[in-house]
Amino acid sequence: MDPIDFTAKTVLVVGGSSGIGNAAAQAFRAHGAGVHVWGTRASADAYAAEAGSDLQGLRYAQMDFSKDGALDHWHPPFESLDVLVLSQGMVLYKREEFQMPGFRKVVELNLMSVMQCCMRFRDMLAATKGSLIIVSSAAAFHATKGNPAYNASKAGAMGLTRTLGQAWAADGIRVNGIAPGFVATKLTAVTTENSARLRAAEERIPLGRVGTAEEMAGIALFLASPLASYIVGQTILADGGMLL
Ligand SMILES: NC(=O)c1ccc[n+]([C@@H]2O[C@H](COP(=O)([O-])OP(=O)(O)OC[C@H]3O[C@@H](n4cnc5c(N)ncnc54)[C@H](OP(=O)(O)O)[C@@H]3O)[C@@H](O)[C@H]2O)c1
Q1: What separation in Å is there between the alpha carbon of 10 and the centre of ligand 1?
Q2: Does the beta carbon of 235 sit less than 6 angstroms from any atom of ligand 1?
């Protein structure tokens, strides 16, 4: 039996319209799953010209957590759910996160919406003995200059991974996480599209390069698979050695 065969499984990737979430969605699809993805834009067509957004073969729906009650008004187009990947996230620059409106905005998305999704899908995941994967960040492990909200929200998401892992293991839900180091996506374009900044970032990484969204997707496949059946509440750091 192929342990990463997700045939007949249903996967939802929140933040699956782009970057790491999109790569995870496509990886689950390539391994047989029916995959739903959420993003902020009105339709899948709105991502057609976007690098890092391949929505082919995925079932797209709009879900913008900055709109009040967005999730409360949503009705699932699937009856059961086997894997939930929470990859929504944002960061603000120019010291905006040192102002309370900016701080709140980032924490609302990176932490509050994560908990909201966990609660919304808990019963569905319990029914299938499913897997929940929270994408936090290497930022959960160290200070991040200029980004207090990103840092606090990601440390919070990692804590949530542990605590829900403990709370829901007895229900058959395995909660685990991924902490990416530096991955080229639209979130990090401000660095990767500037050659001097990119070089400086690569110099801090023992592997000498930034990671790919596909490398993060591989961890999601592993965590959701029977290969990880005894792993609970853990966040796997994947940073090319950056924090060593
Ligand atoms: N890239 C890295 O180096 C890195 C490192 C550590 C952790 N991470 C984490 O990895 C996760 C994925 O990030 P990424 O790098 O793949 O960036 P990305 O390409 O910008 O993806 C972010 C995703 O979050 C969605 N999103 C943004 N605002 C939202 C909102 N208000 N409501 C609902 N969804 C929203 C985006 O939707 P749209 O496509 O519609 O904008 C997109 O699907 C994030 O949690 C991020 O913090 C990334």
Answers
A1: 21
A2: no
Give the C-alpha separation, 172 to 139, whole Å. Answer: 29
Q: Atom of ligand 1 at shortest distance to CA of 23?
A: 16
| 106 pocket-lining for ligand 1 (C-beta < 6 Å) | no
Q: Using CA atoms in the order 154, 156, 157, 161, what is the torsion angle rounded to 10 degrees?
A: 140
Secondary structure element (H or E) that encloses residue 149, with its range? helix 148-168
Give this prediction's pTM.
0.98
Which residues, in sequence order, are CB contacts of 189 under 8 Å at separation 6+? none
Q: Output the pLDDT for position 206.
A: 98
DSSP structure class, residue 208? S
φ and ψ of 154, to 5 deg: -75, -35
Cα–chain center distance at 32:
20
Question: Pairing between strand 34-39 and 131-135?
Answer: unpaired
Given pLDDT bands bounded at 50, 70 and 90, which one contains residue 126? very high
pLDDT tens per residue across span 177-210: 999 999 999 999 999 999 999 999 999 999 999 9
| Ligand 1, atom nearest to 110 Cα | 45
Active-site residue flag, 150: yes
Alpha-carbon Rg of the chain, whole angstroms?
A: 17
In the block, residue with structure tokens 């409360």: 72
Entry field: residues in the chain: 244
